[in-house]
Amino acid sequence: MNTDAGPVSVAIVGLGRAGWRRHLQPLSQHSAFRIVAVADPLPERCAEASALTGCRGFSSIDALLQGGDSEVVVVATPSSSHTSDAEKVLNSGRHCVVEKPMAGSFAEAGRLLALARQRDRKLFVNHSMLHQPEYHHLRNVLDSGALGPLFDLRFFSGSYARRWDWQTLKKNGGGLLNNEGTHVLSVVLPLLGARVTAVSSDLRHIKDAGDAEDHVHLVLKTDQGVSADVLLSTAIALEAPRWMLCGKYGTLVSDGTRSHLRRYDPAKAAPLFVLDAAAPNREYLKETLPWEEQEMAVEPPPVATFYENVYDVLRRGGPQVVTPEGAVNVMRVLELARQSLP
What we know:
Elements lengths: L7 E6 L3 H12 L4 E7 L3 H11 L2 E3 L2 H7 L4 E4 L6 H10 L3 E4 L7 H14 L3 E3 L7 H12 L5 E9 L17 H17 L3 E9 L10 E8 L4 E7 L9 E5 L2 E5 L3 E7 L26 E7 L8 H11 L7 H16 L3
Parallel strand pairs: 1-2, 1-4, 2-3, 4-5, 5-6, 7-10
Antiparallel strand pairs: 7-11, 8-9, 9-10, 11-12, 12-13, 13-14
Helix pairs in contact: 4-5, 5-9, 7-9
Protein backbone atom coordinates (compact mmCIF):
# COMPACT_ATOMS: atom_id res chain seq x y z
CA MET A 1 0.00 0.00 0.00
CA ASN A 2 1.34 3.43 -0.93
CA THR A 3 -1.05 6.34 -0.44
CA ASP A 4 1.42 8.86 -1.92
CA ALA A 5 2.36 7.10 -5.15
CA GLY A 6 -0.12 8.91 -7.40
CA PRO A 7 -2.02 7.17 -10.19
CA VAL A 8 -1.77 3.40 -10.55
CA SER A 9 0.17 2.46 -13.68
CA VAL A 10 -1.54 -0.24 -15.74
CA ALA A 11 -0.69 -2.42 -18.72
CA ILE A 12 -3.38 -4.27 -20.68
CA VAL A 13 -2.80 -7.53 -22.51
CA GLY A 14 -5.45 -8.22 -25.15
CA LEU A 15 -7.39 -5.43 -26.87
CA GLY A 16 -10.49 -7.31 -27.99
CA ARG A 17 -14.02 -6.70 -26.72
CA ALA A 18 -13.21 -7.07 -23.03
CA GLY A 19 -9.75 -5.52 -23.11
CA TRP A 20 -10.95 -2.46 -24.99
CA ARG A 21 -14.45 -1.86 -23.61
CA ARG A 22 -14.20 -3.12 -20.04
CA HIS A 23 -10.63 -2.07 -19.30
CA LEU A 24 -8.90 0.36 -21.66
CA GLN A 25 -11.84 2.71 -22.22
CA PRO A 26 -12.85 3.14 -18.55
CA LEU A 27 -9.23 3.28 -17.35
CA SER A 28 -8.33 5.93 -19.94
CA GLN A 29 -11.02 8.18 -18.42
CA HIS A 30 -10.07 7.53 -14.78
CA SER A 31 -7.61 9.99 -13.25
CA ALA A 32 -6.50 7.45 -10.63
CA PHE A 33 -4.98 5.23 -13.33
CA ARG A 34 -2.42 5.69 -16.09
CA ILE A 35 -2.20 3.23 -18.99
CA VAL A 36 1.49 2.83 -19.78
CA ALA A 37 1.54 -0.22 -22.06
CA VAL A 38 -0.66 -2.55 -24.10
CA ALA A 39 -0.05 -5.82 -25.93
CA ASP A 40 -1.95 -7.36 -28.82
CA PRO A 41 -0.86 -9.42 -31.83
CA LEU A 42 -2.71 -6.98 -34.13
CA PRO A 43 -0.48 -3.88 -34.52
CA GLU A 44 -3.39 -1.66 -35.54
CA ARG A 45 -5.02 -2.26 -32.14
CA CYS A 46 -1.84 -1.25 -30.34
CA ALA A 47 -1.57 1.84 -32.52
CA GLU A 48 -5.15 2.81 -31.71
CA ALA A 49 -4.49 2.43 -27.96
CA SER A 50 -1.24 4.44 -28.23
CA ALA A 51 -3.02 7.25 -30.06
CA LEU A 52 -5.69 7.37 -27.36
CA THR A 53 -3.52 7.08 -24.23
CA GLY A 54 0.09 7.67 -25.24
CA CYS A 55 1.05 4.19 -24.05
CA ARG A 56 3.67 1.86 -25.53
CA GLY A 57 2.53 -1.04 -27.68
CA PHE A 58 3.89 -4.59 -27.69
CA SER A 59 3.10 -7.65 -29.78
CA SER A 60 2.97 -10.15 -26.88
CA ILE A 61 2.65 -10.45 -23.14
CA ASP A 62 6.26 -11.61 -22.89
CA ALA A 63 7.52 -8.51 -24.68
CA LEU A 64 5.31 -6.29 -22.52
CA LEU A 65 6.52 -7.81 -19.26
CA GLN A 66 10.13 -7.40 -20.38
CA GLY A 67 9.87 -3.93 -21.84
CA GLY A 68 6.93 -2.34 -20.04
CA ASP A 69 6.80 -0.91 -16.54
CA SER A 70 3.52 -1.04 -14.62
CA GLU A 71 2.19 -1.90 -11.18
CA VAL A 72 -0.78 -3.83 -12.55
CA VAL A 73 -1.28 -5.93 -15.66
CA VAL A 74 -4.75 -6.68 -17.00
CA VAL A 75 -5.13 -10.11 -18.63
CA ALA A 76 -7.91 -9.81 -21.22
CA THR A 77 -6.66 -12.50 -23.59
CA PRO A 78 -8.80 -15.42 -24.82
CA SER A 79 -10.16 -17.55 -21.97
CA SER A 80 -7.91 -20.51 -22.74
CA SER A 81 -4.82 -18.32 -22.03
CA HIS A 82 -5.94 -16.79 -18.73
CA THR A 83 -4.07 -19.19 -16.45
CA SER A 84 -0.71 -19.05 -18.21
CA ASP A 85 -0.88 -15.28 -18.76
CA ALA A 86 -1.88 -14.54 -15.16
CA GLU A 87 0.96 -16.76 -13.94
CA LYS A 88 3.42 -14.76 -16.05
CA VAL A 89 2.11 -11.50 -14.59
CA LEU A 90 2.32 -12.66 -10.98
CA ASN A 91 5.77 -14.17 -11.50
CA SER A 92 6.93 -10.81 -12.88
CA GLY A 93 6.12 -9.24 -9.51
CA ARG A 94 3.10 -7.26 -10.66
CA HIS A 95 -0.48 -7.25 -9.41
CA CYS A 96 -2.88 -8.95 -11.81
CA VAL A 97 -6.39 -8.22 -13.03
CA VAL A 98 -7.75 -11.23 -14.91
CA GLU A 99 -10.93 -11.43 -16.95
CA LYS A 100 -13.45 -14.16 -16.24
CA PRO A 101 -13.20 -17.09 -16.17
CA MET A 102 -10.09 -16.62 -14.06
CA ALA A 103 -8.62 -19.96 -15.13
CA GLY A 104 -9.27 -23.09 -17.16
CA SER A 105 -10.14 -25.27 -14.19
CA PHE A 106 -10.64 -25.30 -10.43
CA ALA A 107 -7.12 -26.66 -9.95
CA GLU A 108 -5.64 -23.90 -12.11
CA ALA A 109 -7.62 -21.26 -10.20
CA GLY A 110 -6.27 -22.61 -6.91
CA ARG A 111 -2.78 -22.49 -8.35
CA LEU A 112 -3.18 -18.82 -9.27
CA LEU A 113 -4.45 -17.98 -5.79
CA ALA A 114 -1.50 -19.79 -4.18
CA LEU A 115 0.94 -18.00 -6.49
CA ALA A 116 -0.54 -14.58 -5.68
CA ARG A 117 -0.14 -15.30 -1.98
CA GLN A 118 3.39 -16.60 -2.45
CA ARG A 119 4.41 -13.51 -4.44
CA ASP A 120 2.48 -11.19 -2.10
CA ARG A 121 0.63 -9.71 -5.07
CA LYS A 122 -3.04 -8.85 -5.47
CA LEU A 123 -5.19 -10.95 -7.78
CA PHE A 124 -8.34 -9.21 -9.03
CA VAL A 125 -11.00 -11.08 -11.02
CA ASN A 126 -13.50 -9.06 -13.06
CA HIS A 127 -16.74 -10.45 -11.62
CA SER A 128 -18.48 -7.16 -12.27
CA MET A 129 -21.99 -8.26 -11.20
CA LEU A 130 -20.83 -8.05 -7.57
CA HIS A 131 -20.52 -4.28 -8.10
CA GLN A 132 -23.97 -3.86 -9.65
CA PRO A 133 -27.16 -2.64 -7.95
CA GLU A 134 -29.24 -5.81 -8.30
CA TYR A 135 -26.87 -7.98 -6.23
CA HIS A 136 -26.78 -5.51 -3.33
CA HIS A 137 -30.54 -5.01 -3.52
CA LEU A 138 -31.18 -8.76 -3.24
CA ARG A 139 -28.56 -9.09 -0.52
CA ASN A 140 -30.26 -6.33 1.50
CA VAL A 141 -33.69 -7.97 1.16
CA LEU A 142 -32.32 -11.30 2.39
CA ASP A 143 -30.40 -9.64 5.23
CA SER A 144 -33.54 -7.77 6.33
CA GLY A 145 -35.25 -11.08 7.15
CA ALA A 146 -38.38 -10.04 5.22
CA LEU A 147 -38.52 -13.38 3.40
CA GLY A 148 -37.49 -15.52 6.33
CA PRO A 149 -34.96 -18.30 5.70
CA LEU A 150 -34.22 -18.71 2.00
CA PHE A 151 -35.02 -22.16 0.61
CA ASP A 152 -34.99 -21.62 -3.17
CA LEU A 153 -33.47 -19.13 -5.62
CA ARG A 154 -34.13 -18.89 -9.35
CA PHE A 155 -32.31 -16.92 -12.01
CA PHE A 156 -33.23 -16.58 -15.68
CA SER A 157 -31.45 -14.87 -18.54
CA GLY A 158 -32.86 -15.58 -21.98
CA SER A 159 -32.40 -14.14 -25.44
CA TYR A 160 -32.10 -15.43 -28.97
CA ALA A 161 -29.04 -14.58 -31.02
CA ARG A 162 -26.76 -16.69 -33.21
CA ARG A 163 -23.02 -16.25 -32.68
CA TRP A 164 -20.08 -17.26 -34.87
CA ASP A 165 -17.05 -15.73 -33.13
CA TRP A 166 -14.15 -17.45 -31.30
CA GLN A 167 -16.17 -17.76 -28.09
CA THR A 168 -18.40 -20.37 -29.71
CA LEU A 169 -15.50 -22.86 -29.76
CA LYS A 170 -14.69 -25.17 -26.85
CA LYS A 171 -10.97 -25.16 -27.68
CA ASN A 172 -10.87 -21.42 -26.92
CA GLY A 173 -12.60 -21.81 -23.56
CA GLY A 174 -15.81 -20.50 -25.11
CA GLY A 175 -19.41 -21.28 -24.31
CA LEU A 176 -22.12 -19.69 -22.21
CA LEU A 177 -21.02 -21.34 -18.95
CA ASN A 178 -17.64 -19.57 -19.06
CA ASN A 179 -18.88 -16.37 -20.65
CA GLU A 180 -21.97 -15.67 -18.53
CA GLY A 181 -22.15 -18.47 -15.99
CA THR A 182 -19.11 -17.15 -14.14
CA HIS A 183 -20.77 -13.74 -13.69
CA VAL A 184 -24.08 -15.20 -12.55
CA LEU A 185 -22.54 -17.71 -10.14
CA SER A 186 -20.39 -14.96 -8.64
CA VAL A 187 -23.60 -13.43 -7.23
CA VAL A 188 -25.76 -16.54 -6.81
CA LEU A 189 -23.25 -18.30 -4.54
CA PRO A 190 -23.03 -15.54 -1.90
CA LEU A 191 -26.82 -15.06 -2.01
CA LEU A 192 -27.28 -18.74 -1.16
CA GLY A 193 -25.25 -18.19 2.00
CA ALA A 194 -23.97 -21.77 2.19
CA ARG A 195 -21.53 -24.07 0.43
CA VAL A 196 -22.76 -25.69 -2.79
CA THR A 197 -22.19 -29.43 -2.50
CA ALA A 198 -24.12 -30.83 -5.46
CA VAL A 199 -24.76 -29.62 -9.01
CA SER A 200 -26.75 -31.13 -11.85
CA SER A 201 -26.39 -29.54 -15.25
CA ASP A 202 -27.72 -29.53 -18.78
CA LEU A 203 -25.35 -27.87 -21.25
CA ARG A 204 -26.52 -27.81 -24.86
CA HIS A 205 -25.32 -26.53 -28.20
CA ILE A 206 -28.49 -25.40 -29.98
CA LYS A 207 -27.79 -22.94 -32.79
CA ASP A 208 -24.38 -21.18 -32.63
CA ALA A 209 -21.77 -21.77 -35.33
CA GLY A 210 -19.20 -23.45 -33.07
CA ASP A 211 -19.37 -26.45 -30.76
CA ALA A 212 -19.63 -24.78 -27.32
CA GLU A 213 -22.86 -24.63 -25.31
CA ASP A 214 -25.32 -21.78 -25.89
CA HIS A 215 -27.91 -23.10 -23.39
CA VAL A 216 -27.08 -23.72 -19.71
CA HIS A 217 -29.37 -25.09 -17.01
CA LEU A 218 -27.89 -25.63 -13.55
CA VAL A 219 -29.51 -26.90 -10.37
CA LEU A 220 -27.44 -26.27 -7.24
CA LYS A 221 -27.89 -27.65 -3.73
CA THR A 222 -26.10 -26.37 -0.62
CA ASP A 223 -25.08 -28.14 2.56
CA GLN A 224 -27.90 -26.22 4.29
CA GLY A 225 -30.56 -27.55 1.92
CA VAL A 226 -31.00 -24.33 -0.08
CA SER A 227 -31.47 -24.91 -3.81
CA ALA A 228 -30.91 -22.70 -6.84
CA ASP A 229 -32.15 -23.05 -10.40
CA VAL A 230 -30.03 -21.11 -12.92
CA LEU A 231 -31.09 -20.92 -16.56
CA LEU A 232 -28.89 -19.05 -19.06
CA SER A 233 -29.67 -19.28 -22.72
CA THR A 234 -29.20 -17.44 -25.99
CA ALA A 235 -31.70 -19.87 -27.53
CA ILE A 236 -34.84 -18.66 -25.73
CA ALA A 237 -36.78 -15.98 -27.58
CA LEU A 238 -39.12 -14.83 -24.77
CA GLU A 239 -38.48 -13.43 -21.32
CA ALA A 240 -39.32 -14.77 -17.84
CA PRO A 241 -38.69 -13.27 -14.37
CA ARG A 242 -34.96 -12.62 -13.95
CA TRP A 243 -34.84 -13.33 -10.21
CA MET A 244 -37.11 -15.21 -7.83
CA LEU A 245 -36.13 -15.55 -4.17
CA CYS A 246 -38.31 -17.86 -2.13
CA GLY A 247 -38.24 -17.68 1.66
CA LYS A 248 -40.26 -19.28 4.41
CA TYR A 249 -42.49 -16.19 4.75
CA GLY A 250 -42.68 -14.85 1.21
CA THR A 251 -41.28 -14.39 -2.26
CA LEU A 252 -39.49 -11.65 -4.16
CA VAL A 253 -39.54 -11.35 -7.96
CA SER A 254 -37.19 -8.89 -9.68
CA ASP A 255 -36.20 -7.88 -13.19
CA GLY A 256 -33.00 -6.30 -11.89
CA THR A 257 -34.43 -2.77 -11.87
CA ARG A 258 -37.68 -3.20 -9.91
CA SER A 259 -38.80 -5.84 -7.43
CA HIS A 260 -42.14 -7.05 -6.11
CA LEU A 261 -42.20 -8.50 -2.61
CA ARG A 262 -45.06 -10.51 -1.13
CA ARG A 263 -44.62 -11.68 2.44
CA TYR A 264 -46.36 -12.04 5.78
CA ASP A 265 -45.27 -11.47 9.34
CA PRO A 266 -45.46 -14.85 11.12
CA ALA A 267 -46.18 -13.05 14.40
CA LYS A 268 -49.46 -11.80 12.88
CA ALA A 269 -50.60 -15.21 11.64
CA ALA A 270 -52.67 -17.63 13.68
CA PRO A 271 -50.83 -20.62 15.19
CA LEU A 272 -50.81 -23.66 12.93
CA PHE A 273 -51.64 -27.14 14.18
CA VAL A 274 -52.00 -30.46 12.38
CA LEU A 275 -55.55 -31.80 12.22
CA ASP A 276 -55.03 -35.57 12.21
CA ALA A 277 -58.71 -36.32 11.62
CA ALA A 278 -61.43 -36.03 8.99
CA ALA A 279 -61.50 -32.58 7.37
CA PRO A 280 -64.68 -30.61 8.22
CA ASN A 281 -67.21 -30.74 5.36
CA ARG A 282 -64.65 -32.65 3.31
CA GLU A 283 -63.01 -29.32 2.48
CA TYR A 284 -59.33 -28.57 1.98
CA LEU A 285 -58.17 -26.60 5.01
CA LYS A 286 -57.07 -23.10 4.12
CA GLU A 287 -56.57 -19.72 5.71
CA THR A 288 -56.22 -16.09 4.78
CA LEU A 289 -52.72 -14.96 5.66
CA PRO A 290 -51.92 -11.28 6.44
CA TRP A 291 -50.04 -10.70 3.20
CA GLU A 292 -48.00 -7.52 2.74
CA GLU A 293 -47.13 -6.31 -0.78
CA GLN A 294 -44.28 -3.97 -1.62
CA GLU A 295 -42.87 -2.56 -4.86
CA MET A 296 -39.21 -1.56 -4.69
CA ALA A 297 -36.83 0.18 -7.06
CA VAL A 298 -33.35 -1.29 -7.32
CA GLU A 299 -31.22 1.62 -6.15
CA PRO A 300 -27.52 2.17 -6.88
CA PRO A 301 -25.42 0.40 -4.24
CA PRO A 302 -23.05 2.17 -1.83
CA VAL A 303 -20.06 0.29 -3.27
CA ALA A 304 -17.23 1.30 -5.54
CA THR A 305 -16.94 0.36 -9.18
CA PHE A 306 -14.51 -2.43 -10.04
CA TYR A 307 -11.56 -0.12 -10.71
CA GLU A 308 -12.38 2.24 -7.86
CA ASN A 309 -12.06 -0.84 -5.66
CA VAL A 310 -8.75 -1.79 -7.30
CA TYR A 311 -7.42 1.68 -6.48
CA ASP A 312 -8.77 1.52 -2.92
CA VAL A 313 -7.06 -1.84 -2.34
CA LEU A 314 -3.70 -0.79 -3.78
CA ARG A 315 -3.51 2.75 -2.44
CA ARG A 316 -5.53 2.64 0.80
CA GLY A 317 -5.35 -0.99 1.85
CA GLY A 318 -9.11 -1.45 1.51
CA PRO A 319 -10.85 -4.83 1.18
CA GLN A 320 -11.48 -6.43 -2.20
CA VAL A 321 -15.14 -6.52 -3.24
CA VAL A 322 -14.43 -9.50 -5.51
CA THR A 323 -12.19 -11.75 -3.47
CA PRO A 324 -9.94 -14.22 -5.28
CA GLU A 325 -11.22 -16.89 -2.88
CA GLY A 326 -14.77 -16.20 -4.06
CA ALA A 327 -13.65 -16.41 -7.68
CA VAL A 328 -11.96 -19.76 -7.00
CA ASN A 329 -15.23 -20.99 -5.48
CA VAL A 330 -17.02 -20.05 -8.72
CA MET A 331 -14.51 -22.21 -10.59
CA ARG A 332 -15.21 -25.07 -8.16
CA VAL A 333 -18.94 -24.94 -8.91
CA LEU A 334 -18.30 -24.69 -12.66
CA GLU A 335 -16.26 -27.86 -12.38
CA LEU A 336 -19.03 -29.61 -10.44
CA ALA A 337 -21.40 -28.62 -13.25
CA ARG A 338 -19.17 -30.14 -15.91
CA GLN A 339 -18.54 -33.29 -13.85
CA SER A 340 -22.29 -33.86 -13.54
CA LEU A 341 -22.70 -34.25 -17.30
CA PRO A 342 -23.33 -37.80 -18.57
